Amino acid sequence: MLFHYDGQVDAWMDMEWSPQAIHVMAANQTKWWYAKRFLHPDIVARYNYIFLWDEDLGVEVFHADRYLNIMEDEGLEISQPALASSSSEVHHILTVRQPTERVHRRLITGTGWNSCNANSTGPPCTG
């Protein structure tokens, strides 16, 4: 399933797998907007893991096996791969990998950035 926020659906049609993919387009929306509306449990139940991929994540430096091992070790079922700011062009600060962490969970509130921790009581930290 591909979510298109920029109207560039036709740009993907030359990919061999594209005709079999579900393409959903809504201008100027975020991946989490799409996920909330289209990744219904009935659709994703058949998969062990869900990646929410940004356009700025290059596959040249992505190691799927390593990433899946981290997801399994950390008990993650849905995740967004982070970017190393030294090897990728970063479009959204939220996607920057924390170099001292194996995984990071971040949320933005009305008061600014917060990290998930053992005392967290609400989403996205608690599921």
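Second entry:
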Amino acid sequence: TVQLNTSGTVEYNIQKNGNPILNNAPLGINTSVADFSSGLSFLSKDTTSIDETYKMISGRKSVVANKANEMTLKFSKKGKNLNISFRTYNDGVAFRYTIPGEGNITVANENSTFKIPAGTVGWAENFITSYEQTYPLRQLSNLEVSKLGMPLLMKLSKGQFVMISEAAVNGTYCASHLKGLGTKTGALKTVYQDEEKKVKSTVNSKLPLSTPWRVAAIGDTIATIVETSIFENLNPSSEIKDTSWIKPGRSSWTWWADIPETLENNMKMVDFAAEMGWEYHLCDYGWSDKWMPQLVEYGKTKNIGIWVWSHQQDLNTDAKIAEKLPLWASWGIKGIKVDFFESDKQEMIKLYDKLLVAAYQNKLMINFHGCTKPSGETRKWPHIMTREGVLGGEYYKFGYFNPKGPINPAEYDCILPFTRNVLGPMDYTPVIFSKLNGMTTYAHQVALPVVFESGVTNYPDTMDTYRACKAKEFLKACPASWDDTKLIEGDPGKYITIARKKGTSWFIGAICGGKNSSRKAIIPLSFLGSGTYKAMIYRDGSKSDEIICEEKSVTKDTKLQIELAANGGCAIQLIKQ
């Protein structure tokens, strides 16, 4: 419901089946054209509907349905106009502002507020610009006084789930986060980085200006949130016609395992990637242009494409981009990993846009690191294969994940598929054995390339570690892009079992986390097609580093029951016979 109150402020609330989802809260935007947060007069209403399907190259589904109703309300203030568009989906609601006209515009702040009902709990990070934080479970009293990175996942008192974040962020604006207003009304406001400081973080743009979408994904069950495509649906369609160079895949990688960046070492890693049937090898900090063309040529003989790392400071001007990206492309580089953005401000968001355009022009895929969260832009820019914006596997290397540390990594793994990974691909760099110290089981690690979605999976551990792994065949087989995704069961921070389809095969990842978290994963295979499937099962043994491999014949009538150890897991490949 949307209304204009006596002060001329637009207010809205969301209900589903008669139950309050978000309580009455103000909207508005304060700009150099006008302060549209009060004093508005209603002009008119337009409605339209959206009903389309589109294809995705990577992600949780290869074909996505986009079905919504859109209502645009037009308001005026002293001869200046503001449009607020609302889109309603079966799995959520979104709104954004558009200021028509021509010329320049500055935006000081938004009045976009989400008012959370009493009895709500939520999982959210403390806001930092790298989005490398954990997602503790918070009571409403904590949420409404905190500065939170998005997404915010909430469970309402009647059991519904709501995720708040943003979609279609680009360089005409900045990225945002949430700030509890401390009013004991459950109010969270959309704010910009450093907004409270004396040097304001403003947006400078041109008219007409449309803001990013402010999104509330809504589900009666957590499966609706995990499976949603609302963030992609709110982005424009891609204008990239030839996508033949955009190929999801798996990659070996030097940095995590402390392998020195020499030509000889990287050639060995290329050999290993080929041995595993993977598609790529990533050269990180320290690679040399003296030997890189030679490595690319060697990779071609093994059918392995090469990715290279760069600091964003080496690509932060038009001249640097024009010098480096065509050169790397001329060598035959397949993708670039660009690092250390660590800002949500508009100037940095503009740099993402520049890099995306230049990478597309040079047919280079992209992995952003030290970066902002995704906002569904893989629909418009399908060559974004993955991005960080997550506290990932490097934190084993840094020692932050340790048996005496502040967080149980297995428990944290059981939160990410319900939070950060919903927004888009996530370069967690999974499957780590070397520095586990018993914090998760080996089978838990093997399940992660299915539990986590990423258009390129960068495998961090050493070659010998993977060669010795009893689940090596699973790591060879597990793809990095999916035709369909189904959440089988899940409870954030406790456990998740998820199934993903590729071609005629299905892959299942089940993990659990926390003290005394051992459980029986019950997995009905009713999503399978007709006929018989061979199930290759990799599950916990009696010790944390033991993986038991089993083979079973199953059908869609089979219900698998698999014991997971504490902080354990299970990975399953289902092959059509």
